[in-house]
Amino acid sequence: MAELTLITHVYNAQQPVDHQLALWKRYDPALLARLEFLVIDDHSDTPLQVGKGRLDLRLLRVSDDIDWNMPGCRNLAALQSRTEWMLFFDVDNVADEAAIARIVNALPRLDPNRLHVFRRTEGGVDVEPHINSFLITRQGFFRAGGYDEDFSGHYGFEDVLFRTQWRRHVGGEVLLTDIAFEQLGHRTGGLDRDTARNQALIHAKAAAGLPRARGLLRFGWDEVALAAAPAEAA
Q: How far apart are the first and last CA of the chain?
């Protein structure tokens, strides 16, 4: 029975997804039996193509074209996750098999009220941990209120608000120093990265006492039917 869901959301990022899939498919079968994979296609211009092989993998596609809909994608993933523990990460953050195995083996000892973050390396050098890559429980996600979809459509600060709400309503954060994600070079293009609107929004929410998010999943979505490629079938 699966113990952990690996979750990533993507927009126009077929190559980084292919890279992740190639790594996942090489995992030891005993580890794969403890994992589920959930990929959210955030209305990519060309729908994401995924061959799941032996992976316990689901692909969900957002059917409404909303810029910077990370809050919605993460809410959808949490609602659809079938395990209590969830590992969120941007598609250009990669952890090797040994790191994932250490995470799964540690789950019984981890505090469910902590948000667990990881070291991050780039070019072999440690850089600041990624704000969007963390391990939490599903229960904690919803105690924090989920992501605020008021921030969808514009860039920035939804991740800052979620981490703030976690600390207020759930618990602290802890760095797992023995696990590192590698930062790849992918960068989402073609979208406006002006943060002015969302920066004003988070200031307004702080002035209002940081109310919990309302109205999760303000968009349509579908699950994409996947079949194992013949060469990969058991």
A: 18
